[in-house]
Amino acid sequence: MALLCVGCTSISTLPDTDIYLADLDRTSMTVSHVRNVTQRTGYDNQPAFTADGNALLFVSDRSGSTDVYRYDILTSLTTQITDTRESEFSPTPMTDGKSFSAIRVGLPDDTTEAYTESQQLWRYDLTGKPIAPILGTRRVGYHCWLDDGLVALFIVGDDKKGLPHRLVATDLASRQTVDLASNIGRTIKRMPDGRLSFVDKSDSTKWMFSTIAQGDAKPTPLIAAPLGSEDFCWLQDGTMICVRGNTLVQWKTGTTTFTPFATLADLVGTIVRITVNDDDTRIAFVLVKPPMPSK
Questions:
Q1: CB 199: neighbour CB atoms within 10 A?
Q2: What pTM was estimated for this model as a whole?
C-alpha cells in the first residue's frame, strides 16, 4: 500500500506514529537537538525535505483520510496542504519547484483490492491542488525520481494471485516501463551517483541492500541489511544510513559492516522512514509508538 504498511486495506489500520527531526553533523557523524515535531496521537508519517531543506512535507490522518502537511523548521509552524476525500501518501518535492508528487488513493474507504487498484502517482501544485495523474499505472505503493523524466515505482503485489511486489522504472516521455526487480522492500532511493537502491527480500532470512543502474542486466548486492531493517537514506558522499534497533548506523562503500553513530535509547518505539536534507545537515525519521495496553 501507499506508505507504510504494504498489505493494509484501509486507512483504519494506520499505526500511531510521530515524526522526529534532528541536526546532523556530517563531519563528526553526530546527531543533536532531537525533537518531536508532530507530538500528537495518530498517524504522521513519510517525511520528505523540501529542496531548500527548511521544511518537511509529510502525511497525517486527522479526518479519516491522509492529507499532506508542511512543517516549517525555522518557525515550527505546521500547515495543512491538501484537503481531499482521497488519501495521499509519500509527498515528494519535484524539481520544477512548483509542484510535488504523491501517491493518491482514489478509494480510501474501500477494504478490498479496489483500494490498492486505485493507487496512482499524481502531481499536485504547492497549494495542494491535485493537477493530474503523472502515469496511468495503478497499484503504485512508493516512488522515487531518478531524474526529471524517469521515475522508479514500487508496484504492490497480490498475495491471492501469488504476485510479489515489483520494482519498475518508467520513462515519462516514451511511457516505456522496464522491470528491475521483484520481492523488494518499501524503500527505494536514488544514490548520489544516480543509481537506484532498494532492499532485496528474495531470501527471507537475509535481506540485501542492492542497487541497479540503467542498462544493468540485474541488480548488484551491496551489503546485508540489519535484521528487520528496510528503511535507509544516502549522504552526498555515498554513506548509507539505516537503523539497527534504536541506533542509527552507517555503511561506507568498500566496507563489510555497519558502524553505529547515534543511539536514541530514550525513544520508545520503532524507528523507520529515515531521510536527510540535500546538504546533509538535518535528519528526519518516524517513530512507530508501541500500542497502548488493553484495559
A1: 21
A2: 0.94
